[in-house]
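Exercise 3.2. Students should predict the tertiary structure of the chain below and write it as structure tokens, then compare their answer with the key that follows.

Predict this chain's 3D structure.
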Amino acid sequence: MSASRPIKQSDELLKDFQSYLLVERGFSGNTLEAYTRDARHLIRFLADKGLTAADASGSDIEEFLISLHELGIASTSQGRIFAGTGAFFRFLRIEGYIDSNPMELLDSPRRARNLPDVLSVDEIDRLIAAIDMTKDEGQRNRAIVETLYGSGLRVSELCSLSLGRTFLQEQYLLVEGKGSKQRIVPLSPVAVEEIRNYLIDREALDIKPEGSDTLFLSRRGRPLSRVMVFYIIRDAAKAAGIEKKVSPHTMRHSFATHLLEGGANLRAIQEMLGHENLSTTELYVHMDHTRLRSELLSHHPHFNH
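Answer key:
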């Protein structure tokens, strides 16, 4: 795949790509920034496989695109990333870094029918603001939405959160995901505040034995069901005037999409969502709590409040 010209370091290469987009393609503003970000995501993905962009084959690019789909990245974002990486490989060929474009035979990803809609940051904020705080469960519901969106949890993981694994002072959760595998997930300062306020209300409940160590409880003091969480999210979206089909999984996909669009490392997103190594056979890249939290502080909207 590589041509005779040695490829530059990624930062310098991306600066040249930006210049190409601006001067040769006439792009500016949001498109220029988005395409550069897309190329950076690809470079990081390839680096995890020990490859440079000049080494990439069509199958490597397919793996990259599949990883986006499996993370639940919005289909519109997948299409845009396909276009951005396509422009990047055209640039590499023009500049003599590669002899042929590995994306020439790849089809643009079709709109994924099985992915729920992704909410914008504004829609997320509207949904949270629409929660009726005059109701006894209002504070609980706000804490639930902030936790789902701020940590990217599956609804089953949210329902099984325990008090003993909720570390508000340190701002993280110990989550048990699929296959009883545990992972550490950072909590946003906003979510921490909402959970602390909810715990005051929780103490006033008549807590049943089965709910004694469960974080989020029903008004009757029992663990919440996934269906109940679905209704909480659906009703808040309806109250906010959001016409998209919204579910707890929508919050998880919004979490992943907003992080990726903000420039977060794809591997960090995989780690926080509890995905296994999606597209490579190499050992999973370990990322500690500090590094994961750094990714969120830099790229998640509600970690920057």
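Discussion points: The first strand starts at residue 166 and ends at 167. Residues 29-48 form the longest helix (20 residues).
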